[in-house]
Amino acid sequence: MTRPAFRSTRPAFVGPLALLALSFLLMPLPRPAVAEVTGCPLETGAFAPVDQVKPILETFFANLATQDVVSAARDLFAIFPISQEAKDSFANKITAMKGKLGNLSGSEFVGFRRFGASQRYVIVYWFSFHDLMPVLWEFSFYRPKPDSPWQLNFIRFESDDLLEFMAFPKLQYDTLRQQLEGPLKPGN
After folding, report:
1. What span, in angstroms and rounded, lies between the C-alpha atoms of 174 and 163?
2. DSSP state of 38
3. SS3 label, residue 139
4. Enclosing domain of residue 162
5. I need a surface site. Which of 64, 68, 126, 137 has the fewest CB within 10 A?
């Protein structure tokens, strides 16, 4: 006995259209204009250099909550080898940030990054909590000689793009920000 031939009732072009639709669904979405943030690989465990610089930052943030910026930053600026003009400019930026975001209600250690096995350079991240939003700070500390005191090598802070701030080095972050917002305005 012969079976009757199977006949499809659907038009012949549905198969290719279905494949085309399926291929669009499986295509990867376009990448965003800004690089993706893949997380913030920070360490938080014990590390002697971080344990040595933490008291400096704890004092700075405790003072920042109760004093004017110049007084609060006195000890921090004492170990920051930049010009007095640069220190004054940075103090003005901190003062402006506090004016926009409100009182400091606390701070906490976030983590750190080290470079290989180096005991002489470390980047420490810290949160300060304000009335309107948190601020993420990055402090780079450097020891010119193994037995010398720590010096502050670099400071930056951000209140808006926290993950991007942590994920990208300063110059790359500034470049990405300029692409999104345009050139920096004087005083920023």
Report:
1. 14
2. -
3. strand
4. 48-181
5. 68
Please give the Cα distance from 178 to 166 (Å, whole number): 17
In a domain, 55, yes or no: yes
Instruction: Record the pTM.
Output: 0.70
Which domain CATH number covers 165? 3.10.450.630
Q: Which two tokens stand for residue 34?
A: 């800004």
Q: Which two tokens stand for residue 45?
A: 């465990």
CA 72 – CA 94 distance, rounded (Å): 11
Q: Which residues pair with 100 in a beta bridge?
A: none
Is 24 domain-assigned? no
At a CB cut-off of 8 Å and minimum separation 6, what does 155 contact?
80, 90, 137, 138, 139, 140
Q: What's the CA gap between 142 and 118, in Å, rounded?
A: 10
User: Per-residue pLDDT tens for 18-77?
Assistant: 544 445 445 554 444 434 445 557 888 999 999 999 999 999 999 999 999 999 999 999
**Rounded distance between C-alpha atoms, residue 94 and residue 148, angstroms:** 28
In a domain, 6, yes or no: no
Does a structural domain hold residue 97? Answer: yes
Q: Could you give the CA distance from residue 72 to residue 21 in angstroms, rounded to a whole number?
A: 62
The number of folded domains in the chain is 1
User: What single letter denotes the amino acid at residue 41?
Assistant: P
Tell me: the pLDDT tens digits for 107-149? 999 999 888 889 999 999 999 999 999 999 999 999 999 999 9
